[in-house]
Write a structure and sequence with these properties.
11 strands, 196 residues, Immunoglobulin-like, seven-stranded antiparallel beta sheet, mainly beta
Amino acid sequence: MRGALTIGSVVFICGCASGPDCQARLHALELEVAELRGRVEQMGRGDPAPRGFTDVNRRAGCTKTFDTTIPTGTQMTLAVPFDVGETNTRAGDRITITSVLGTRADFGIGGVYLVRGEYTLASADEANLAFNVTAIEPGDGCTSGNNRGSVHVLRGSGTFELANSIPYRGHPHVSFYIKGAGSGGVYFGKDDFLQR
């Protein structure tokens, strides 16, 4: 299978052995390019970088990349108690976490989690809504392979279901990315896995 990614006037073509993996890789590249474009726009406007709400911001300093592919059939059935931590969204935007299920009953490295909730997007016509984990340690924070961690949403309200793993010490959050730039979200978790 072949996929294409356009950056400016340059078209990149990638060949992949299997369809879903190729699409997931292509989607991940599109998100990275959108994130970088947004950061360039922010720098051009002199806006400060958003605090915390992206793993891509740390990519240049990562010592390794963690594969966060969620194997087919992974059972995230255990209810995981959580607290809501730092919340920072644009005026009119809202993200509410309603439940967290996992492969383990607490937050920890190696756990895989399914987050359900509700959102309102009022500050833009469209955005990506993503479940990421902001790394605590320098050199962590780069991931690949997860095609269940983000969803494209349009202006208005709705529900979401996102899944991701925690491959390193960090703070889980669900955030909006508008034109690729992190535009705030909500941290959730417990104890050392909660950004307060």
